[in-house]
Amino acid sequence: PMSGRKRHIGDRLNPPSGKCLGVFGLSLYTNDSDLRSVFSRYGRIADINVVIDQKTGRSRGFGFVYFDNDDDAAEAKDRANGMELDGRNIRVDYSITKRAHTPTPGVYVGRPYAKPRDGDRYESRDRYDRGGDRHDRHYERDRHDRGRYESRDRYRDDYRDRRDSYRRSPSPGYRRRSPSPYYRDRSPRDRYY
DNA sequence: GTTGAGCGTT
């Protein structure tokens, strides 16, 4: 229930139609050209982009497909949604975000649920429990999804630094002297044996 | 083949 004249940017259940499709649930091994070979049969493609995690170089499991015109995008959405690709059933829908985050979100102000009120139900561990270990990995994503940001570009570095502090191991014992291409920058608990 | 749920960098 939104009031006032708020810009309709859509939500996940009801995204605005357009030329840009979001493709989700991708295999980590599906790349731009894989997507292109699927989606190009519905029309002329303007651009394709599987989102890559800069840190790890891995796909984040979703991407965006830009068509030249809306009709082709609409058809592609209907035809390709639920299709199996590289062993995964992909979800295709209109993208709620039009472009990549050109100016970064800004400084992180706080999670909207930082102050639960009386009567709130603590149903999801992911929302309220900060103490977990394994789920810390998903914390980044939650921050982007649910956190509040001030859009102030000059805070961008500050934002990045704070974000990175969640990722790097602060322990000097694991720090290496020089970066090596064969060694990944992981915290010790992220290693698997 | 690094899971899962996930809307983005240049």
Distance between the termini: 49 Å
Helix content: 10-25%
Structural class: alpha+beta
Please provide the count of β strands: 8
Main β-sheet: number of strands, strand sense, barrel status? Answer: 4 strands, antiparallel
Strand order of the largest sheet: 2-3-1-6
Quote the average pLDDT. 64
- Poorly predicted runs of 5 or more residues: 1-8, 104-118, 120-193
Estimate what percentage of residues fall within beta strands: 15-25%
Instruction: Report the total helices.
Output: 5
Report the order of strands and helices. Answer: EHEEHEEEEHHEH
Give a quick set of tags describing it.
globular; DNA-binding; 193 residues; alpha+beta; four-stranded antiparallel β-sheet; 19% strand; two-stranded antiparallel sheet
Describe the protein's architecture and organization.
There is one protein chain. The chain is α+β, with helices and mostly antiparallel strands and 193 residues long. 21% of the residues lie in helices and 19% in strands. A 4-stranded antiparallel sheet has the order 2-3-1-6, with helices on one face. Strand 4 (84-85) and strand 5 form a beta hairpin. The longest helix is centred in the middle third of the chain and has 11 residues, at 70-80. The termini are far apart. The model is unreliable at 1-8, 104-118 and 120-193 (pLDDT under 50). It binds one DNA strand of 10 nucleotides through strand 2, strand 3 and helix 4.
SSE map:
Layout: E1 20-24, H1 32-39, E2 45-52, E3 59-67, H2 70-80, E4 84-85, E5 88-89, E6 91-94, E7 107-110, H3 125-128, H4 139-146, E8 148-150, H5 156-165
Antiparallel strand pairs: 1-3, 1-6, 2-3, 4-5, 7-8
The structure holds one DNA strand of 10 nucleotides.
